[in-house]
Amino acid sequence: MVKEKPNSTRIYDKEGYRRRAACICVRSEAEAEVLLVTSSRRPELWIVPGGGVEPEEEATLTATREVLEEAGVIGDLGRCLGVFENSEHMHRTEVFVMVVTQELEEWEDSKTIGRKRQWFSIEEALSQLALHKPTQRTYLQQLRHSKHRCPNSAPPIISEHESCDDGDFTIGTPKDENSTPESATAAATPTTAATTTNDSGEMVMTNEEEAVADERKEAEGGVSPSPAIAADEVEDAGSTNASPPTTPTT
């Protein structure tokens, strides 16, 4: 069964990237074991719990909400590992570390879609993510690199790679709200539909509005769906070469 959120609203930053948040859940301060959950589309494979930021929601709240929904755990939210930018799928994921203090016997996704969770060593988790979500390996690589980072330093922007070996990721400078990354200048910004903006200038678009925007683009010139929508559709579909599913998932 595939997880569905038919009434969800996507939030985009000023550069057109969809905002997401995720958690690397660790068993202890030693950070030797991490918790992964099964994919909603391919339950034999494992992913890092996370999802889209909701309107008027801080990324920290998104991260704790998503791990409770998807993994059924509660804990102490710690440092931010960085903002992981995927230019191909047009989303940016703010990833935090959580030390788990409570594991629920049943939780929302375990009851609705039969999602499972499991503890892995860092090396085992890297191997599991390589099968289905190779870009999420950068989260674990940054977990290692960030352990001794100054607590007051701003979280870096990190470019995700579809295929990355240990250490193969690019760390950029903290985001300047007045600058535009090169990867974003050429990207399509989903403003064709009747979008609204919040007080921070972020774009807010419902699933229905995005569908209308895509239909309009295709009618005008056969333009493919916006990268942000494509990202949502393949978020849990496995390989980027697979055919995009029709139902968006977390």
Automatic annotation (TrEMBL):
Q: Which GO terms describe its molecular function?
A: bis(5'-adenosyl)-hexaphosphatase activity; bis(5'-adenosyl)-pentaphosphatase activity; diphosphoinositol-polyphosphate diphosphatase activity; endopolyphosphatase activity; metal ion binding
| CC cofactor | Mg(2+)
Give a Gene Ontology cellular component term annotated to this protein: nucleus
- One of its Pfam families is NUDIX
Q: Where in the cell is it found?
A: Cytoplasm
- UniProt EC number: 3.6.1.52
The record's region (Disordered) falls at 146-250
Domain of life from the UniProt record: Eukaryota
Biased composition range(s): Low complexity = 180-198
PROSITE patterns membership: NUDIX, NUDIX_BOX
| CDD domains found in the cross-reference section | NUDIX_DIPP2_like_Nudt4
PANTHER family recorded: DIPHOSPHOINOSITOL POLYPHOSPHATE PHOSPHOHYDROLASE, DIPHOSPHOINOSITOL-POLYPHOSPHATE DIPHOSPHATASE
Please report the name of this protein according to its UniProt entry: diphosphoinositol-polyphosphate diphosphatase
Please name the source species.
Answer: Anopheles darlingi
> What is the phylogenetic placement of the source species in the record?
Eukaryota, Metazoa, Ecdysozoa, Arthropoda, Hexapoda
